[in-house]
Task: structure prediction
Amino acid sequence: MSITGIILEPKRFAVHDGPGIRTTFFLKGCPLRCIWCHNPESVPPHPELAYYAHKCIRCGECVSICPNGAHSMREKKHEFHRSLCTACGKCERACLGRALRLYGKRITPEEATALALEDRAFYEQSGGGVTLSGGEPLFQPEFCLELLKQLKTAGVHTALDTCCFVPRTALEAVLPVTDVFLVDFKHADSSEHRKLTGQGNELILDNLHFLSERGAEIEIRIPFVPGCNDSDENMERTGEILGGLNVKSVKLLPYHDLARTKYASLGRTDTMPHAKPPSPDRIAHAVRLLRARHVNARSGTE
Result:
């Protein structure tokens, strides 16, 4: 049986997912449940349909085409019966207002490689390549490994955006075919990490040490979320941990809450903190705390 994966729509001409101009594939499935997650559509491993009510023009096309009666119209108002939806995607293709969107489509590594190679010229001119993100790409380890192998065979630079809460065997397998690891670091304290993500950070730290000891190129990315992980104490402890590792750079990514409409469209509880984005001064202060501990830190907006 051929290997397949479930991905979201690829993001072309990405410039924040590794060096140069890149194509980013977002794989479905994630072992963490970060309260600030801005890609909630990537968390479940299975395809799911989103309904953006504000885009609905009440054309009724979805009602006529759905084989399971997941859509209905009552008093000229659209109703989506999520429990009846099998995520077949027929209604998405029929929706005239683009209010329906299927998150998660099956693809083979060969198909994904072919899509990526359409932009080879941009990679070569900019020093870019392909990034696998998510979700957590190693939640689909076989697909991830095969795609990375094919990309490397084609001479494409590869990056893996990972939370590192994955089996060691998955990291070991992709290490030879991954040029740079973009590792998310949420919190230095394991109990706080569990409150914020649903899991402790021991496995993440172990895997970080493994990558560092094996000489992998590592870029740390810290989602800088006011009231969650932005305290001086956490930044100092984070600096102590990362300062002892072979880490090329650390980026602080300022929090935003632009994903709230995604939670509503998926019928999911919105867990995002009600916090304003951190000010440039606050980020600069955190950068100084990290640099004081010999960490090559900078703002992710630079």
Notes: The first strand starts at residue 5 and ends at 7.
